[in-house]
Amino acid sequence: MCRWLAYSGEPLKPAVLILDAQHSLVAQSLNSPLGVETVNGDGFGFGWYPEGSAAGSVPALFHSIEPAWHDENLRELTNNIASPLFFGHVRAAAGPPIQQTNCHPFRYENWLFMHNGFLDGFSLMKRDLVLAVDESLFPLIHGTTDSEVMFYLAITFGLADDPIGAMAKTVQFIEQTGEAKGVHFPMQGTLALSDGATLWAFRYSTAHRTRSLFHSVEIPALREMYPDAERLQVFGDKAKVVVSEPLNDVPGAFVEVPESTVAILTDDGYSHQPFGTPAD
């Protein structure tokens, strides 16, 4: 469906990952070997927390309906800012129209969210899902994607207080709604979520056959594995990236996030937790 990456660590020029890596996000927009669609040219989005911003700051966004591979504004922007936490997403539209309001990531206050996948049977479930969004949030849904509705459901279900729990409640509600409509496997996807400090990356589908998701090995460990790799000097010790597919072919540089798992990235490193609905 789409490809995405999320970075957390010392401030970094986003172009290092979005443009310059061997299998950068822009390269994946043209050719994603692990993706369902090889080409992801139906727009893109970039969201970032500015360097030096205080906790709870609102992130910045840049969306375009142009293919990422020929957008000069993306090149200019990502080469001239530095950010300690940023999201990048290239889109392969699966039905909703190509328009800026349908480009990921989505933002609410200090939160960023993006999704690779789909809600099967969304047209059947849409009315029930949208009406479950808190009334105060309803006017903020500007696009037509299932992903944006999912994000506002998670906010409704308590994202600010318990991000993992809110996402579990969201998935449970989607699956219960789908079951009532005769949809057997409504949830499919990898999700990225951040409040500007912590990064959560979810891999889950009702059928337990979820889109690919990987994260990098910690930089100090990589330096031990590859002491002569000059490329690693660009990154600080806390640098971490979660990706739809690896950004290079270096053996051991990326590990796959297991099925039905949430990876949690903080300054202290990585941790994994099982993820499913509360009934699991």
UniProtKB/TrEMBL annotation:
Q: Which Gene3D superfamilies match?
A: Glutamine Phosphoribosylpyrophosphate, subunit 1, domain 1
One matching Pfam family, short form? GATase_4
Q: Which residues form the Glutamine amidotransferase type-2 domain?
A: 2-280
| Keyword match Transport | no
Q: Tell me if Transmembrane helix is a UniProt keyword of this record.
A: no
Q: Spell out the SUPFAM superfamilies in the cross-references.
A: N-terminal nucleophile aminohydrolases (Ntn hydrolases)
Q: Which UniProt keywords apply?
A: Glutamine amidotransferase
User: What superkingdom heads the lineage?
Assistant: Bacteria
**What's this protein's name?**
Class II glutamine amidotransferase
Name the species this protein comes from.
Answer: Leifsonia williamsii
